[in-house]
Design a protein that fits this description.
about 425 residues, mainly alpha
């Protein structure tokens, strides 16, 4: 093969596949809504721990923000999965977006008070997490309905890029807003973002459940869990991500790291670092849609995430720390692309909502518990100890799970029975 032909082939592998945006109006609306919502949400992600730190100056108080969100996340995530399979998914998404607008409005009002109340941060954080987790399974399940089967990998890359766009720009802006104008300005922008997003989501077509859909109940939840447990490849995607986040997540340490490095103005930069790496991975992620052994890809990417976090403990300045966190973010994004592709290509549509609820537990509970873990370890041995030990524990846990779950490690969408069955079903439905 000539050098120019090799270069063209390489560029094709790296180029984004925009076909989901081109072919699906509803996916375009969801994509645009996601950009706007993530923009505001990430600003609030910076504002809440910053405000808590300013009010309490406590590692534990900041870490407890994530812990307070854990129970609503578990309960509402599972129930959100059940109602996603039983009710109109559009209605769930729209009503949830309205609820999130109200909670950010409450945070704005509290921040404007002469004496902001700490309990409001905990309560509104828990409530907004609960609403978001009711919504998330429906959002995840909708992608399977509005995007073609063969475009699921491309949609996963595009959704990841959308997420990272907000994750880069918004934390940097959030850091500037909270330090220059206070948390009220940050919360106010988030409230506006939900209003704009709601206008877009309103235009999505109705997405009613199947005629024989099981009603939302404890029985339907158990049915979904039984299906998930019966598939070791899916179990692997959940457990590896939980382990990676619990042991290596440490965003609750960023306000303290910025102070230790004598760069408080770089707080937003630290929050953006992972997203910068993830965006690079998304933009050049055309190759990921062509990978067939996604299970092995998740394992390698999660181990690299942990190694990068461990390396960040040795960073002598903000820029080296930024580079380590950016590499970690790139690895985590690749893992997420592979996991999303496996889920959307192999799970039957009648179970997609309930399985999305279980997936939410894996990718949402890990960061919450990880931030609490990071804060407690920092209290015992400092921020560097928390990052270094956590990263190494992550690598060890991922390798142990890879050894214990051979079906996950050897998964191949070209030969997997579930992937082939879902592909045949989608073709027959056309």
């Amino acid at each position: 093969m000539l050098p120019t032909e090799r270069l063209k082939r390489l560029l094709r592998h790296l180029t984004l596949d925009l076909s989901p945006l081109r072919d699906s109006r509803d996916y375009r609306l969801l994509f645009a809504s996601g950009v706007i919502t993530m923009f505001g949400t990430f600003i609030t992600l910076v504002a809440v721990p910053y405000q808590m730190k300013e009010l309490t100056d406590s590692y534990v108080a900041v870490g407890l923000v994530s812990l307070a969100e854990f129970v609503p996340m578990v309960v509402c995530g599972l129930w959100g999965g059940a109602i996603a399979d039983a009710l109109d998914r559009r209605k769930i998404i729209v009503l949830s977006e309205l609820g999130l607008l109200v909670t950010t409005g409450a945070l704005t009002v509290n921040a404007m008070l002469p004496d902001p109340q700490i309990w409001v941060l905990y309560v509104m954080g828990a409530v907004s997490t609960g609403i978001s987790c009711l919504q998330r399974p429906s959002l995840e399940a909708v992608f399977q309905q509005v995007v073609k089967h063969e475009q699921q990998g491309a949609a996963a890359v595009l959704s990841s890029m959308r997420w990272n766009f907000g994750a880069i720009v918004a934390p940097a802006l959030g850091g500037l807003l909270v330090t220059a104008f206070g948390p009220a300005a940050a919360y106010g922008i988030d409230t506006l973002s939900f209003a704009l997003s709601l206008a877009l989501l309103w235009r999505i077509r109705s997405l009613p459940p199947a005629e024989d859909a099981a009603p939302a109940s404890l029985k339907s939840l158990v049915e979904g869990m039984r299906y998930a447990v019966g598939r070791p490849d899916l179990v692997g995607t959940y457990l590896v991500d939980i382990a990676a986040m619990v042991f290596a997540m440490g965003t609750s340490l960023y306000p303290f790291l910025a102070d230790e490095l004598h760069s408080p103005q770089a707080l937003g930069l630290l929050y953006s670092a992972s997203a910068v790496g993830a965006l690079v991975a998304s933009i050049t992620g055309g190759w990921a849609a062509r990978v067939h052994r996604q299970g092995l890809g998740v394992i390698v990417a999660a181990a690299l995430w942990g190694a990068a976090v461990a390396a960040s403990a040795l960073a002598p300045n903000v820029w080296v720390l930024f580079a380590c966190l950016a590499f970690a973010g790139a690895a985590d994004m690749v893992s997420g692309i592979f996991r999303m592709t496996m889920w959307n290509q192999t799970i039957p549509p009648e179970l997609r909502g309930r399985l999305a609820g279980i997936e939410l537990l894996s990718y949402a509970s890990g960061p919450m518990l990880g931030n609490a873990r990071a804060s407690l370890m920092a209290k015992l041995g400092g921020t560097r100890f928390s990052l270094g030990a956590g990263g190494l524990l992550c690598v060890a846990a991922v390798l142990a799970l890879a050894a214990a779950l051979p079906a996950f490690r050897t998964y191949d969408d070209r030969t997997d029975d579930h992937a082939l069955a879902e592909k045949a079903r989608r073709k027959a439905a056309v």
